[in-house]
Amino acid sequence: MLLLLSLHLLLFFAGAITNFVILERSEGPLYWLLFLLLLCFFVGHSAQIRFCCSRLLPTPPYSLHLGFYTWQMALDLTRSKALQHRAENFLPGGVDSPVRAFRAVGGDPPFVSSAEGAYLTDADGNRYIDLFGSWGPMLLGHAFPPAVAAIREAAGRSASFGASTADEANLAELVQQCFPSIEKLRFVSSGTEACMSAIRLARGFTGRPFVIKFEGCYHGHADALLVKAGSGVATFGIPGSAGVPNETVMHTLALPYNDLAAVEAVFASHPDLIACVILEPVVGNAGTIAPQPGYLKALREITKKNGALLIFDEVMTGFRLAPGGAQELFGFASGDDAPDLTTLGKIVGGGLPVGVFGGRAEIMDYLAPLGPVYQAGTLSGNPLAMAAGIATIEYLLIHQETIYPQLEATTAAIANGVARLAAEQGIGLTTNRVGSMCTWFFTPNPVTDFSTASLSDTAAFARFHRAMLEQGIWLPPSQFEAAFVSTTITQPEISAILAAASEALKEVAR
Question: Mean pLDDT over residues 133-142, rounded?
């Protein structure tokens, strides 16, 4: 950066010296012509320097303030815009998942061409520090070398068999080592499939129809779970989804998160009818929302007392908050307080499509071929996903003593740093963080459930998101999604993120 800036100034002063020489030897009109050319260079050449920097510097966009002269990146998304327009001819909205369309934050979504470590590179050559991590899986950064090597080796033996492989049990053993509450498990291809299957199993095991979920918690797009859901449902401000009949969701009871009285009231009004309670132990799909002290333990007691199962959806939190996820972090890994069933995804497959549902052996044995609850999947236990998962989880277990303290310190520095900068600008901001998940809610009030999260100033978040993106920091494009930090974000990236936030919050404050 300093080298390029110095070169810029050197060229300017060299031109000025040349101008002086010509002034001594030439007529006035030539001087004024050269003066105008130099002025154009001074004002406009910064865009050319920015263009080079976005490709050469490890951390792309910057703002430099030199008196009256501000040199700032203007994001060039020419190629991404063309790709978006082309995609719209084939894909609804040009995307395969709605939040990617940037409708909640405005602007044009960059099209990613590659990623490595903490950085994404788009089709125009712009590089970004990644703070959404493929929505959670990239705990160890993009293109994690052991996972890449494992995938390549597995692919050489075939991408799929449709038959059992040893690696399914190998990865299952690693999962069980991290989650003692999971006595048996089954692999599927997504978190949606895992949650859908866990609820079917809970209903089959208990013989009961009703399911309790919580407002703002997202458990995938299965019909019965799209009731007051988080993630894209919250992002687009819709209560559910068209195409889901009332009869499909009539047995789904959506309650406020962190409200024990509501849970007790529903159990009292539906005696012996509730099959399970499913929740994100730390909400990530309405932004990061932590459980209140005693909340998870009380849910465990209520479900046990009423003969219902407790399901922890740890698709986001599993392996991220600790090797054993939220269960380990909050002391529910084993024993009487452990959940009956757990769902996993994202990190467990090393970034490849995979999901897991598992729990007590007596419940899991209700699955076919041993029991009456049917579940199947052609690509379940896919060998590429198993290989990537083994490489990732083995690394986490070996290096857990350094990985999780590092993630804690890094995320705290980023989250608290942005909060401090917002306070300096007089911006009402609530920062929620658990481990390496965090959200900056643009509201001055505490956020403890979806109703308080929904009071956030989404327009202010959109301005913040756009300003950060312009400076090379890619946040999740929704106020109601958690940011995720990877181990590849270190001090240079922290400094760049906070420098960008300082400028972005000035934009928000205007």
Answer: 97
| Res 26: pLDDT | 43
Q: Which residue has the higher pLDDT, 40 or 159?
A: 159
Could you tell me if 217 and 286 are in contact, meaning their C-beta atoms sit under 8 angstroms apart? yes
pLDDT at 242: 83
* Amino acid type, 129: I
Task: Name the residue among 479, 474, 198 with its Cα closest to residue 355.
Answer: 198
Q: What is the pLDDT of residues 363-375, one digit of tens each?
A: 999 999 999 999 9
| Cα 360 to Cα 476: distance, rounded to the nearest angstrom | 35
Could you give the CA distance from residue 446 to residue 68 in angstroms, rounded to a whole number? 40
In the numeric block, the tokens 């889901």 are attached to 244
Rounded Cα–Cα distance for residues 419 and 413 (Å)? 10
Cα–Cα distances (Å) from 441 to 68, 94, 141, 220, 497, in that order, read: 34, 28, 25, 23, 17
- Using the predicted structure, report yes or no on whether residue 245 has a pLDDT greater than 70: yes
Under 8 Å between Cβ of 420 and 502 = no
404's tokens: 């999780």
pLDDT at site 64: 40
Per-residue pLDDT tens for 252-284? Answer: 999 999 999 999 999 999 999 999 999 999 999
Percent of the chain as helix, strand, coil, to the nearest 5: 45, 15, 40
Stated as kind and residue range, the H or E segment containing 49 is helix 28-56
- d(Cα 220, Cα 343) in Å, to the nearest integer? 11
Tens digits of residue pLDDT in 139-162: 999 999 999 999 999 999 999 999
Question: In this structure, are residues 142 and 115 in contact, taking their beta carbons and an 8 Å threshold?
Answer: yes
By C-alpha distance, which of 58, 49, 65 is closest to 8? 49
Please answer whether residues 94 and 81 qualify as being in contact, where contact means their C-beta atoms are separated by less than 8 angstroms. Answer: no
Q: Is 181 helix (H, G, I), strand (E, B) or coil?
A: coil
Establish how many alpha carbons lie within 13 A of residue 503's alpha carbon, considering only the half-sphere containing its beta carbon. 22
Mean pLDDT of 166-179: 98
Length of the chain: 510
Structure-block tokens of residue 111: 């099209």
Compute the distance between CA of residue 154 and CA of residue 490 in angstroms, rounded to an integer. Answer: 31
Least confident of 55-59, 350-354, 368-372: 55-59
* Catalytic residue IDs: 218, 313, 346
Sheet holding 252-255, edge to edge: 184-188, 355-359, 341-345, 309-313, 274-279, 210-214, 252-255
Q: pTM (2 decimals)?
A: 0.85
Alpha carbon of residue 16 to chain centroid: 50
- Measured CA distances, 62 to 51, 74, 180, 187, 210 (Å): 12, 10, 47, 44, 53
Residue bearing tokens 């129809």: 209
Q: What is the C-alpha to C-alpha distance for residues 131 and 120, in angstroms, rounded to an integer?
A: 10
Kindly state the helix (H) or strand (E) to which residue 35 belongs, with its residue range: helix 28-56
In this prediction, residues 350-378 reach a mean pLDDT of 97
DSSP output for 295-335 = HHHHHHHHHHHTT-EEEEE-TTTTTTSSTTHHHHHHT-SSG
| SS3 (DSSP) at 195 | helix
